[in-house]
Amino acid sequence: MTGGEIAALPWPAAAPEPLPSMNQSFRQLVAALPRAARPLARRLPHRLGLTAARDGQFEDFVTFEPNRNLPDFAVAGVAGVTGAVSPDSELLRRFRRAHHYGAFFWLVRDRLADDQTAPDRELEQLGDLLFQHWALAMEEAARDVELARAVIGDATARWRVGTADEKRALRDRTITPAYHAATVTRKLDWITSAARMLLAAAGEPERARLFQRAYDCFLLGLQCIDDVSDEAEDRTLRGCSVPEALGCSPGALLRAAPKLVSRAAGLASEGGFARLAAWMSTFSRAIEAWRLEGDPVAHEMEAIALIGQMGADLDGPPDQPGDYLS
Length: 326
Prior knowledge:
Layout: H1 3-8, H2 22-32, H3 38-42, H4 44-47, H5 58-61, H6 65-68, H7 70-73, H8 88-113, H9 121-142, H10 145-172, H11 177-187, H12 193-201, H13 205-229, H14 231-238, H15 242-246, H16 250-270, H17 274-287, H18 296-315
């Protein structure tokens, strides 16, 4: 699916400005960095291998509206949808910025950990600076230092566990579907950190857990697509692809994606996140026709079985905050 085809889908309405876009947030962040760090920061998407163009921007890589501005989807009645300015505008501005800053930091850390970009001291130092700015943005968004630091610590601990488990599984060349689902959701937990913190800060911890559960399922669907696309790269870097480690065909793993996204839409609807549910439903329909060559019936049945074996992690509650803090 091309960028133009994605943009043409009938997405739910997005919140207009004055809320900052991801690219605007990055420009603000670069301006706040020490002068010596700015040249590398300005070409960071290209340095990480996210864009082909040297002057590429994060929005060239992060194309889906929820991934760009996830806190918007955690609240009802987004400010600006009717053109009116409300107190929610300032709240969403703070949490959007925290979400954006988290993406900038975690993309650096994740690409380095996955050997998808060559490490050097300058990039690692920039990563440290990005973490500091993310942590500060989270504290400013929540206006509760204790809550922000707990969320940051928990997301970081989950990422460490997920990353180590993923490397171990690919090194051993075997992984169960349930273990894979747990690994993916732990590794990507940071993506929902700002949105969940928004709900927790508003006194809605149960809705925060429901939001996490729905988005975990969505991210797992996206990961199925990525794992099929990255087969050759994973085999080169790690000696084994994810379909091989799972013992399934690439065609079956791809067919699992729309089913997981559809399930995620249902979970979002159950949690009262109507805009998120609508977005996910639209995306699920868009990728429903995606198939690889081979026996379509066999791929379909294998995908259903695969999701069934992931079920314990998909249908149960997410790990409780603090479970991975040492």
